[in-house]
Amino acid sequence: MRLEKVCLLSTAILAGCVTTTPPTAVHQPMTARPMARNEVAPNNGAIYQAAFARPLFEDRRARLVGDTIIINIVEKTAAAKKSNTSAERSQEMEVSVPTLFKVPGKSFQGLNAEASHDNKFSGKGESAANNTFTGTITCTVIEVLPNGNLLVSGEKLVAINQGEEFIRFSGVVNPANVTTSNTVTSTQVADARIEYKANGFIDSAQTMGWLSRFFLSFMPF
C-alpha cells in the first residue's frame, strides 16, 4: 500500500515537471501532407499525364494542399480611449412646528428642523495601447477553398535554454496577393490569427496560481 502511494506521488511530481504545449486558437491542423500525385488525376494512358504536369513558366507559388508559403508578420496597432463623467445632486428640507394652545406636546412646539443633502460624483478614465509584432514564419496550405483562396496554418518552435517559445499563424490568403517569391504580408491575410506564447519555468513564474485566482474572484474590493 505504501509502495502504491509512493508511485502515485512520483507520478504526480513528474507530471508537474513535464512542460505542456500551450493551447492555441489558430486553425487546425497546423500542417498538412501533400496528396500523392496519382490521387490528383487518374492515369489516362497518354504521353501527357495531367497528374504530373507542371508548366515550365509557372511561378512557384503555393496553390495546392501541402504547399508552403512565407508569411511576413508586420503588425502594428495603436488605440487610445479617454472619458470623463461627473454628476451632482443637492437637496434641502426645512420643517417647523407652530405654537398651538391646548395641544399636548408643548415641549416640541416652536421647534425648527433643517436637513440638507449633497451628492457629488466624478469619474475619469484613460487607456492607451501600442503593440508591434514583426517576424517571418512559413506556413502550410491546409485547405483550398472553393473560390481559390488558401487556408494556411503553421507553427514555429524556438527552444531557448530551459524555455520554449511558440509562434503560430493561420488565416485565409488570396493567391493574387502572393508575390513571385511566394511571400505575403500578414496585413493581406483575412481571418488572421497570430500567437506568440512561451512555455517554461519563467513563464510559469509570471502566471497567477489557481488558488490566488479563486480567492481573487470572490474578493469584493
The low-confidence parts are 11-19
Structural class: alpha+beta
Total number of helices: 4
Give Rg in angstroms. Answer: 35 Å
Overall 3D form: elongated
Q: What's the domain count?
A: 2
Give the termini distance in whole angstroms.
47 Å
Would you tell me the overall average pLDDT?
Answer: 77
Strand order of the largest sheet: 5-1-2-3-4-6
Mind describing the biggest β-sheet?
6 strands, mixed
Order of helices and strands: HHEEEEEEHH
* Strands, count: 6
- β content, as a range? 35-45%
Helix content: 10-25%
Brief sketch in words of this structure:
With 221 residues, the chain is α+β, with helices and mostly antiparallel strands.
Structure description:
The chain is α+β, with helices and mostly antiparallel strands and 221 residues long. It folds into two domains: 121 residues, no CATH class; 45 residues, no CATH class. It is 15% helix and 44% strand. A six-stranded mixed beta sheet has the order 5-1-2-3-4-6. It starts with a helix and ends with a helix. 8% of the residues are buried.
Which helices and strands appear, and what pairs or packs with what?
Elements: H1 2-17, H2 37-40, E1 68-96, E2 112-144, E3 150-160, E4 163-173, E5 183-185, E6 190-199, H3 201-205, H4 210-218
Parallel strand pairs: 1-5
Antiparallel strand pairs: 1-2, 2-3, 3-4, 4-6
Defining key terms:
alpha+beta, elongated, 6-stranded mixed sheet, 2 domains, 221 residues, 6 strands
